[in-house]
Amino acid sequence: MSTHTIREILQNEVAIDSTVAVNGWLRSVRHSKGGFSFLAIHDGSSFGHLQAVADGSLSNYADIQSLTTGAAVRIIGTLVESQGRGQDRELQATDVQIVGRVAEPDQYPIAKKRHTFEYLRTVAHLRPRTNTFGAIARLRHATSIAIHEYFHSREFVWISTPIITASDCEGAGDLFRVSTLETANRDQIDYTDDFFGQETFLTVSGQLNVESFCLALSRVYTFGPTFRAENSNTSRHLAEFWMVEPEIAFASLKENADLAEDFLKCVFTSIIKAVPEDIDFFQQRIDKQVGARIQQVIERPFVRIDYTDAIAELQKATKEFEFPVEWGLDLQSEHERYLTEIADAPVIVTNYPAGIKAFYMRLNDDEKTVAAMDVLVPGVGEIIGGSQREERLDVLDARMNDEMRDELWWYRELRKYGTVPHAGFGVGFERLVLYLSGMENIRDIAPFPRVPKNASF
Ligand code: 4AD
Ligand code: MG
Asked: Best of 204, 241, 348, 435 to mutate for ligand 1, by most ligand atoms within 8 A of CB?
């Protein structure tokens, strides 16, 4: 007799009439008057659960009858064709071992079938046991595997860039400090006394470091956690999120945009093959549009538009926007949403004003714009941000102040020794999974979301 996962059993990988053992938790329990108990077990291996039927002939049947939702069990039994509706096989239990009971069943925080996502955020340690959060966990996993496979098959090398850094890559100042000093007042701190002997932070992006590997290994990517202390309480922002950052040498903005489009199309295609049941669930129970939106990314050519033309398009719109539309201002999410709606496809906006973008983006010949790109998708907005990098040392120097030139001396040297045009982008991993699941809030995509005023669990 061997132990099987519920996925193996539901997908008919185990022969009917075999004696099997399964381990899991009870999603629901029904004790009938006629001396039968119906136990729905889940173990996270697949979306579905397995039904086990226990009857009064079992020696511990009185104990079984006291089982409630959430209890952990090991059940041994015979796999049989099911008589009931909705499942083709079930377990005729011969031994129900009670591994962990639920204390105070009427207090069990997720005993009821339906809870709001807001409520489930307050019990983040138990929400993985629900259908939705189990599906999100498997989708996150499938997405990260698909991403690694995509790059591996195209000969990209995965580089782990540091989590603790001295530089603010994006220059937005949204940094979490890393320090072992006790002084709270920043002005009084002498960082030469600190652990690293200088001021350090949690990274906002691995890009600057991965560029150094790009200019040696040609095709590289990072995939790791990044941190931003932006105080934006939106359904799209986390203080801690994972980012995927490919970087390619001997490449311009055009190749970068081509890579971004191909990446999203291929990764989405892999995911719908990898977790079809979970995607079905999202489609039926979370957002009826999700399947169509995934297909839209896979099938439609992305619309590419210059920032300047996008501004003209927005100014022509009959729709009233809350935020001003003016050349030189950043696009707000309402603008991004409008652009994806009229295109009815993902949109790549390119060549933004230099003034609103980071120092490392390559200055265009007009000297007003930089070779930046944002990939926008319906519903989520910006899912990718990237650019061609400034490879000319004198132009780069002109975009940095004294302090930056000092601190990033090593980054400048990459432009001194064998510099080449290169480009890359960053994909927000949780935003990607948000889009694939049709969930509304990114706090439900991170297993334990970090947002302003909340770091419990
Ligand atoms: O546009 P961003 O800031 O670009 C960079 O960090 C570049 N260094 C990337 C590169 O060129 N290598 O961030 C990239 C993506 C965004 O498009 C968004 O999807 C995601 O990261 N992102 C966030 N996701 C969740 N919460 C936040 N606070 C995010 N900020 C950015
Ligand atoms: Mg961005």
From this structure: 241
From residue 305, alpha-carbon distances to 90, 112, 308 in Å are 55, 49, 8
Q: What is the pLDDT of residue 191?
A: 87
Q: Are 422 and 215 in contact (CB under 8 A)?
A: yes
User: Scanning the structure block, which residue is given the tokens 């925080």?
Assistant: 109
Distance 428 CA to ligand 1 centre (A): 6
CA–CA–CA angle 282, 288, 294 (5° rounding): 70
Q: How many residues does the chain have?
A: 457
Long-range contact set of residues 239-242: C-beta below 8 Å, sequence gap at least 24: 239/176, 239/450, 239/451, 239/452, 240/446, 240/449, 240/450, 241/428, 241/429, 241/430, 241/431, 241/442, 241/446, 242/428, 242/429, 242/430
Residue 304 in 3-state DSSP?
strand
Beta carbons of 404 and 413 less than 8 angstroms apart: no
Which pLDDT belongs to residue 231? 83
Residue 226 is encoded by which pair of tokens?
């990044």
pLDDT at residue 184, as a whole number: 64
Would you say 242 and 429 are in contact if contact means Cβ atoms under 8 Å apart? yes
Residue 199 CA to ligand 2 centre (angstroms): 25
Q: Give pLDDT, residue 398.
A: 96
Angle (CA) 223 226 227, round 5°: 170
- Closest ligand 1 atom, CA of 375? 17
List per-block mean pLDDT (blocks of 10 residues) for the chain, which spans 457 residues.
Answer: 94 95 96 92 95 95 95 97 80 97 95 90 96 97 98 98 92 89 74 91 97 98 96 92 98 98 98 96 97 97 98 95 97 95 96 97 98 96 97 97 94 98 98 98 97 91
Write the secondary structure of 239-301 as one string of H (helix), E (strand) and C (coil).
CEEEEEEEEEECCCHHHHHHHHHHHHHHHHHHHHHHCHHHHHHHHHHHCCCHHHHHHHHHHCC
Q: Can you give the pLDDT at residue 264? A: 98
Q: Can you point out the beta strands (E) in 117-256?
A: 157-158, 164-165, 177-178, 200-202, 219-227, 240-249
Q: What is the pLDDT of residue 112?
A: 76
- Rounded Cα–Cα distance for residues 429 and 400 (Å): 29
Specify the DSSP class assigned to residue 84: S
Predicted pLDDT of residue 388: 98
Ligand 1: list residues with CB < 6 Å: 169-170, 205, 207, 228, 230, 237-238, 241, 243, 245, 382-387, 424-426, 428, 430-431
C-alpha 386 – ligand 2 centre gap (Å): 7
